[in-house]
TrEMBL record:
Gene3D superfamilies, A to Z: 1.10.287.130, 6.10.340.10, Histidine kinase-like ATPase, C-terminal domain
UniProt-listed InterPro entries: HAMP_dom, HATPase_C_sf, HATPase_dom, His_kinase_dom, HisK_dim/P_dom, HisK_dim/P_sf, Sig_transdc_His_kin-like_C, TCS_sensor_his_kinase
HAMP domain segment(s): 246-299
Native organism: Thermosporothrix hazakensis
Protein name: histidine kinase
Pfam family, one: HisKA
Length: 523
C-alpha cells in the first residue's frame, strides 16, 4: 500500500501560514445633518418652546380673565339683590324687589308688605322667586340669610350644595368671600358671599353663585383653538427658518463654489464681497487674503524652482564642458590641471548652492535647530574679523573692527557667526581692491546694533526693497563673476528674525553699503 504523497510546496504560496481574519463590522455612526438643517432644527426647537410658553401664558391669562369677569358679575348681582332688600319698622328684613341684568333673576313686580321675614316666607314671593329660578335652569344660585344665619330665601338648587363656614364667617366680619364648590351632581359652582348692610350695620349675608359649565366650555374651545394653532405656527416657523437659513448661507455657498473652482493656475480669482458688513463678509475678506497669500507663495515657488534650476544648470554645464575638453582636447599635463581646477571651482559653487537650498528648505519647514545661550556679540565679531582677515587680504581689502562695545545676546553662536561671515563675505566680494570693510558693535538700553560697513560699489535705491529676496541680484553679471547664488542674504534675514531681531541696509551707489543687525540685549 503506497503512502499518500504530500502536497507539493509552491513557491510564493504563503497563505497556509496565515489565519484568515474576519473583518469586524464597524458600528455605523450617524452622520450629522448639514448646518442648514441643524440650524432649522434648533430654530424649530426654540420656536416650539416659545410657542408652548406663549400658549400656556395665553391660556392662563384667558382663564384668569374669565374668572375675574365671572366674579365681577357675581359681585354686581349681589349688589343688585341687596338694593332690593329693606327693613321694616320692626327691624325684620323685607324683599322689596330683585333686579338683575340677567333675565333669569329679573322680577319686575314689586313685592310689598312683610313678604319675607327671618322665620317665614310669603308663598307669593317664594313662588315668584322659584319661577325665576326655574327659568334660570338651575344655573344661578341665590341665598339670603339674616344676622342669626336663618335662611330668608334660598333657590332650590342650593339644597345639594355644602358651602364652607368661611362663606358666612368672613362676610359677618366685613370681608367678602369668593370660592368654588361642587354641587350634588359634582358640577363646579363659583360663589360670591358678601354682607348686607343697613344703616351702617351688618344685618345679613347674600350668597350668589353660578355654574362654571359655560366657563369651562369656553376654556375647552380656547384650548382646542390653541391645539390647532400651535402646530400650524410651528410648521410655518420651520419653513421660515429653513428659508432664512438658506438665505443666510447663500454667501457661504458662493464662497464654496469659488474655492472649488480655484486651482493652482486660477489663484487670481476672488470671491465678491457682500454689501452687508457681517461675519460672512469678514470670512470672505480672510478667504481672499488667504488666496492672495497662496498666489504669492505659488509665484515665489515657481520663481524659486526656475531660479534654482537655472543656477544648478550653469555649474553642471561648465563641469560637462570642461570634462569634454579634458577628454578630447587636452594635450598636456597643464591642460588637464586647468580643466580639473575649473571643475573643482564649479563643484565648490555647486556644493554651496546645494547647501543654501537645503538650508532654505529647512527654514521653510521650520526644522533648522537653534540653540539659546548667552553670546558676547563683541567677542564674536572680533573672532569673525580675525578669521576672515586673510580672505579679505587676498582680494586687496582691509578688514577691520570699529567700536566694539560689550554686549550679550541670547542666541545660537554658530548661526550668529554664519550671519556675520555671510555679511563680511558679501562686503568683500562687492568692494574693489583697496577698499575697507568695518565691523562694529554698539549697545543701547535694550538692543545691540552690529554693523558691517564697506566702501564698495553700493546698491541702487530701487533694488533695496528686494535685496533679501531669494535669488535676487542687484547686478546679475557681477554676482556671477564673484560666484554668488542669490540665497545668502535670504538665509541671513531668516536667521536674524529667528533671533527676534531685524537686519536693514543703507546704501549709496559708488560710496558703499551698511548692513545693520539689531538684536535684543540680554540683561
Amino acid at each position: 500500500m503506497s503512502k499518500k504523497s504530500p502536497k507539493p510546496y509552491v513557491s510564493g504560496d504563503w497563505s497556509r501560514y496565515y489565519t484568515p481574519i474576519e473583518p469586524k463590522h464597524s458600528k455605523r455612526r450617524l452622520t450629522p445633518p448639514g448646518i442648514r438643517l441643524q440650524l432649522t432644527l434648533w430654530y424649530s426647537v426654540v420656536s416650539a418652546t416659545l410657542i408652548f410658553l406663549c400658549a400656556l401664558a395665553f391660556y392662563a391669562a384667558f382663564e384668569r380673565y374669565l374668572f375675574v369677569n365671572l366674579d365681577t358679575t357675581l359681585h354686581l348681582r349681589a349688589q343688585q339683590i341687596a338694593e332690593g332688600m329693606a327693613t321694616g319698622s320692626d327691624g325684620r328684613l323685607r324683599v322689596v324687589r330683585i333686579i338683575s341684568e340677567e333675565p333669569e333673576l329679573d322680577a319686575s313686580a314689586v313685592i310689598v308688605g312683610n313678604c319675607l321675614n327671618h322665620t317665614e316666607a310669603s308663598s307669593d314671593c317664594v313662588n315668584r322667586l322659584n319661577d325665576t329660578t326655574a327659568r334660570s335652569q338651575e344655573s344661578i344660585y341665590v341665598r339670603i340669610l339674616d344676622r342669626s344665619r336663618s335662611i330668608i330665601y334660598s333657590t332650590a338648587n342650593l339644597k345639594d350644595v355644602q358651602l364652607p363656614l368661611e362663606s358666612l364667617d368672613r362676610p359677618e366680619q366685613g370681608q367678602p368671600w369668593e370660592g368654588t364648590v361642587n354641587n350634588g351632581d359634582d358640577e363646579a359652582v363659583r360663589f360670591y358671599s358678601t354682607m348686607l348692610i343697613f344703616n351702617g350695620k351688618i344685618v345679613g349675608v347674600i350668597q350668589v353663585g353660578q355654574k362654571l359649565a359655560l366657563l369651562y366650555t369656553r376654556l375647552r374651545f380656547f384650548l382646542f383653538v390653541l391645539l390647532i394653532l400651535c402646530p400650524v405656527l410651528l410648521t410655518m416657523s420651520g419653513i421660515v427658518s429653513y428659508w432664512l437659513a438658506g438665505r443666510a448661507f447663500r454667501p457661504i455657498r458662493r464662497l464654496t463654489r469659488t474655492a472649488r473652482a480655484i486651482g493652482a493656475r486660477d489663484l487670481d480669482q476672488r470671491v465678491p464681497l457682500s454689501p452687508a458688513r457681517d461675519e460672512v463678509r469678514e470670512l470672505t475678506i480672510i478667504f481672499n487674503q488667504m488666496i492672495g497669500r497662496l498666489e504669492r507663495a505659488f509665484a515665489q515657488q515657481r520663481r524659486f524652482v526656475a531660479d534654482a534650476s537655472h543656477e544648478l544648470r550653469t555649474p553642471v554645464a561648465v563641469i560637462r564642458n570642461m570634462t569634454e575638453v579634458a577628454l578630447t582636447q587636452a594635450k598636456s599635463k597643464e591642460d588637464y590641471i586647468c580643466a580639473l581646477e575649473a571643475i573643482n571651482d564649479e563643484s565648490d559653487r555647486l556644493g554651496r548652492l546645494v547647501s543654501d537650498l537645503l538650508a532654505l528648505a529647512r527654514v521653510d519647514e521650520e526644522r533648522m535647530p537653534l540653540d539659546s545661550e548667552p553670546v558676547r556679540l563683541d567677542f564674536l565679531a572680533a573672532d569673525v574679523v580675525d578669521s576672515m582677515a586673510s580672505f579679505a587680504a587676498e582680494h586687496g581689502i582691509t578688514l577691520q573692527t570699529g567700536t566694539l562695545q560689550p554686549a550679550t545676546v541670547k542666541g545660537d553662536a554658530a548661526r550668529l557667526i554664519q550671519v556675520l561671515m555671510g555679511l563680511v563675505d558679501n562686503a568683500v566680494k562687492y568692494t574693489n581692491a583697496g577698499g575697507t570693510v568695518t565691523v562694529a558693535v554698539e549697545a543701547c538700553a535694550s538692543h545691540v546694533h552690529c554693523s558691517v560697513t564697506d566702501t564698495g560699489i553700493g546698491i541702487a535705491r530701487e533694488h533695496l526693497p528686494h535685496i533679501f529676496e531669494r535669488f535676487y541680484r542687484a547686478d546679475p553679471a557681477r554676482s556671477k563673476a564673484v560666484g554668488g547664488s542669490g540665497l545668502g542674504l535670504s538665509i541671513i534675514d531668516w536667521l536674524v528674525r529667528a533671533h527676534h531681531g531685524a537686519v536693514t541696509v543703507e546704501s549709496e551707489p559708488g560710496k558703499g553699503s551698511t548692513f545693520m543687525i539689531t538684536l535684543p540685549l540680554m540683561h
